[in-house]
C-alpha cells in the first residue's frame, strides 16, 4: 500500500489500534464478565478510495502493534455506512465505533443514546475546508468556476467532499456536471501545485493541509488564495452505547487515549497518520452536531 492510501485511513486505524491496545491491557473487574476482545467498527467512508482488498493490509500494522504490546489480538472491522455502524453499536455487535464527525451528527438524530467518548484531532478541535484558487484569479466563489477544472485530492475527508458538493456548486447540481472536470489528484500538495501552474483552476483542501503547504512552500503558496471556506465541522469521534462496556473500561479508554500524547510509540504512530492526538469531548460538541446536521442534512435515500 502506498503512503497516500495508508494515510487516508490511518487516523481511523490509529484510533482503533490504540483503543484495542488499551482494551487488551485491562484485567476483568471482579464479579463482572468483560468481553474477551472489544470489537471496534469503522465507518466505511474512512476507507473511501481504498480498494477493498487493501483494507486488511492497512489494518495489519495495528494488529502487529497490538500483538507486540499485549500478546493478544483485537477485532478491528469495517462496519458499513454510518447508519449500519450506529445500529451495530446499539445492538452490541460492536462496542466502539469510529465515525466522521458529520456522520455521527446524522446518526445521532436517530440514535440519540449513542455517546461520544473522545474526538480524534489533527491540530484544532474542528475541521474546515477551503476552496483555493490562484491569487490573481477574479473568481469569488465556487459558482464562478462553472466549466472549469477543479481538484479534490483522493482520500479527502468527508467535510471536503460535502463542501464541494453543497457549497461550491449550485443546489441541485453535482460537481461532475457543473465543473468541466473534477480531478482526483493523488495528494493535496500536487493538487495545490496544479492550481499554481494553472493546470486546474481551483482545489478543495482541508485547512490544516493548506496551512502546512503554506509553511513548506511559501513562495508557491503566495500565488494562491482562499475564496470560500466551509463551516466548522466536528472532528472524527469514537462513540459507544452506554450500558455495554463498564464505566471502568470506558474511563480507561478515555484516559489512555488522551494520554497517548505522552507515549513515544503512540506518538510515532499518530504522527505517521496525521493525527496530533485524542481529546476530551468539547463542552459545545452537542451543539456543533446539531449545527452541522442542520447545515449539511443527511443525504436523501434514493
Can you lay out the helices and strands and say which pair or pack?
Blueprint: H1 3-24, E1 39-42, H2 55-70, E2 75-78, H3 82-90, E3 96-99, H4 101-110, E4 115-121, E5 129-134, E6 149-151, H5 158-167, H6 175-178, E7 181-183, H7 188-196, E8 202-206, H8 207-216, H9 218-221, E9 224-229, E10 236-240, H10 247-258, H11 264-272, E11 277-279, H12 285-295
Helix pairs in contact: 1-2, 1-10, 1-11, 4-12
Total number of strands: 11
Distance between the termini: 34 Å
Helix count from the secondary structure assignment: 12
Strand neighbour order, sheet with most strands:
2-1-3-10-4-11
Number of domains: 2
Largest sheet composition: 6 strands, mixed
CATH H-tier superfamily of the largest domain: Periplasmic binding protein-like II
Percentage of β-strand residues: 15-25%
Q: List the secondary-structure elements in sequence, H or E.
A: HEHEHEHEEEHHEHEHHEEHHEH
Percentage of residues in helical conformation: 40-55%
- What integer value in Å does the Rg equal? 20 Å
CATH topology of the largest domain: D-Maltodextrin-Binding Protein, domain 2
Q: Would you state the CATH class of the largest domain? A: Alpha Beta
Oligomer: single chain
Amino acid at each position: 500500500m502506498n503512503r497516500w492510501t495508508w494515510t487516508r485511513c490511518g487516523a481511523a486505524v490509529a484510533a482503533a489500534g490504540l483503543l484495542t491496545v488499551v482494551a487488551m491491557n485491562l484485567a476483568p473487574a471482579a464479579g463482572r464478565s468483560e468481553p474477551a476482545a472489544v470489537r471496534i467498527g469503522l465507518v466505511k467512508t474512512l476507507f473511501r478510495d481504498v480498494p477493498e482488498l487493501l483494507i486488511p493490509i492497512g489494518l495489519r500494522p495495528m494488529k502487529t502493534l497490538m500483538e507486540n504490546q499485549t500478546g493478544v489480538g483485537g477485532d478491528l472491522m469495517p462496519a458499513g455506512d454510518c447508519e449500519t455502524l450506529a445500529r451495530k453499536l446499539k445492538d452490541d455487535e460492536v462496542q466502539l465505533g469510529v465515525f466522521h464527525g458529520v456522520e455521527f451528527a446524522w446518526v445521532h438524530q436517530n440514535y440519540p443514546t449513542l455517546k461520544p467518548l473522545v474526538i480524534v484531532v489533527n491540530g484544532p478541535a474542528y475541521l474546515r475546508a477551503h476552496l483555493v484558487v490562484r491569487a490573481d484569479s477574479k473568481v469569488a466563489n465556487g459558482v464562478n468556476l462553472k466549466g472549469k477544472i477543479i481538484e479534490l485530492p483522493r482520500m479527502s475527508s468527508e467535510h471536503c467532499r460535502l463542501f464541494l458538493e453543497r457549497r461550491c456548486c449550485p443546489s441541485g447540481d453535482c460537481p461532475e456536471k457543473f465543473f468541466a472536470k473534477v480531478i482526483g489528484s493523488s495528494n493535496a500538495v500536487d493538487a495545490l501545485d496544479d492550481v499554481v501552474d494553472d493546470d486546474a483552476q481551483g482545489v478543495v483542501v482541508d485547512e490544516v493541509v493548506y496551512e502546512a503547504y503554506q509553511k513548506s512552500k511559501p513562495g508557491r503558496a503566495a500565488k494562491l488564495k482562499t475564496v470560500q471556506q466551509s463551516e466548522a465541522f466536528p472532528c472524527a469521534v469514537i462513540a459507544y452505547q452506554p450500558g455495554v462496556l463498564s464505566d471502568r473500561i470506558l474511563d480507561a479508554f478515555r484516559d489512555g487515549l488522551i494520554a497517548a500524547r505522552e507515549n513515544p510509540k503512540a506518538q510515532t504512530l499518530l504522527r505517521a497518520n496525521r493525527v496530533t492526538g485524542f481529546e476530551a469531548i468539547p463542552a459545545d460538541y452537542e451543539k456543533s452536531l446539531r449545527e452541522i446536521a442542520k447545515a449539511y442534512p443527511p443525504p436523501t435515500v434514493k
